[in-house]
């Protein structure tokens, strides 16, 4: 007689059950890691493309962000980015979820609802850029006050438009809770999200928050 070896039905079912449990435990972490890497790459690309648009505009129209005026007529922030980037749509104000407020008041530069003067530019790669159309003369300032925030202009990059999670990137929580716009030393970001506050001036577009800096410059 030939002896045959194999698995019983019970053994197969138990093995499949263990594999299912392990997969259920690891899949969320894997998905978050994958999404985070995509968000990080798209964010770096968006910052680079916005800065390149300003440089291109200087070459073609001879003005940068420090020479802009309010509104939508050249030379304005709106006109600069609209003409130098692949804009497929734009929304002024809009309903909640279509845009984010970008104001210039210190400590109240950003909000999470639509505003009358708020403009959202939709680019062909799915990224949106939101800013207050009353912003103008975005500059680093004089030597005496070059690092004071009121000289800059502010906005949001949403790297996947209206898609979720629509969450502002934050530093990892420490022993004490902190808000998304707190300046945090040694900030790290384990799970990058899709919305990034930025400041812009002259020919430069940079992160506004510690979390945005951590994502851009290699924080985990």
Q: What is the structure about, briefly put?
A:
With 220 residues, the protein is α+β, with helices and mostly antiparallel strands. Helix content is 31%, strand content 15%. About 7% of the residues have low confidence.
Report on this model:
The structure is a single chain. By secondary structure, the chain is α+β, with helices and mostly antiparallel strands. Residues 95-109 have low confidence and may be disordered. Strand 2 and strand 3 (128-132) form a beta hairpin. The chain contains three helices and six strands, in the order H-H-E-E-E-E-E-E-H. It has a six-stranded antiparallel β-sheet with strand order 1-2-3-4-5-6. It is elongated, with a radius of gyration of 23 Å. The chain has helices at residues 9-61, 77-84, 210-216; strands at 87-92, 118-123, 128-132, 153-158, 195-201, 204-207. The protein starts with 8 loop residues before the first helix and ends with a helix. Helix 1 (9-61) packs across helix 2 (77-84).
Question: Which properties best describe this structure?
Answer:
elongated, 6 strands, 15% strand, alpha+beta, single chain, 3 helices, 220 residues
Strand content: 15-25%
The value of Rg in angstroms is: 23 Å
Which parts are unreliable, with pLDDT below 50 for 5 consecutive residues or more? 95-109
The spatial strand order of the largest sheet comes to 1-2-3-4-5-6
Average the pLDDT over all residues and give the rounded result.
Answer: 78
Percentage of residues assigned to helices: 25-40%
Using the alpha-carbon principal axes, give the shape. Answer: elongated
Count of β-strands: 6
Assembly status = single chain
> Alpha-carbon distance between the termini?
62 Å
Structural class determined from secondary elements: alpha+beta
Largest sheet: 6 strands, antiparallel
Q: How do the helices and strands follow one another from N- to C-terminus?
A: HHEEEEEEH
Count of alpha/pi helices: 3
């Amino acid at each position: 007689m030939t002896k045959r070896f194999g698995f019983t039905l019970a053994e197969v079912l138990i093995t499949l059950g263990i594999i299912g449990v392990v997969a259920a435990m690891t899949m969320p972490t894997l998905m978050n890691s994958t999404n985070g890497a995509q968000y990080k790459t798209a964010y770096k690309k968006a910052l680079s493309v916005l800065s390149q648009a300003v440089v291109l505009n200087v070459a073609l129209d001879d003005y940068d962000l420090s020479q802009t005026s309010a509104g939508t007529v050249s030379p304005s922030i709106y006109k600069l980015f609209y003409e130098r980037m692949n804009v497929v749509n734009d929304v002024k104000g809009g309903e909640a979820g279509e845009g984010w407020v970008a104001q210039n008041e210190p400590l109240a530069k950003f909000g999470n609802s639509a505003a009358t003067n708020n403009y959202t530019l939709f680019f062909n790669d799915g990224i949106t850029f939101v800013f207050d159309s009353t912003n103008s003369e975005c500059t680093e300032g004089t030597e005496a006050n070059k690092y004071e925030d009121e000289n800059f202009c502010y906005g949001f990059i949403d790297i996947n438009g209206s898609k979720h999670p629509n969450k502002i990137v934050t530093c990892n929580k420490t022993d004490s809770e902190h808000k998304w716009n707190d300046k945090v030393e040694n900030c790290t970001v384990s799970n990058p999200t899709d919305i990034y506050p930025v400041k812009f001036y002259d020919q430069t577009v940079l992160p506004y928050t510690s979390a945005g800096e951590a994502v851009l410059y290699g924080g985990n």
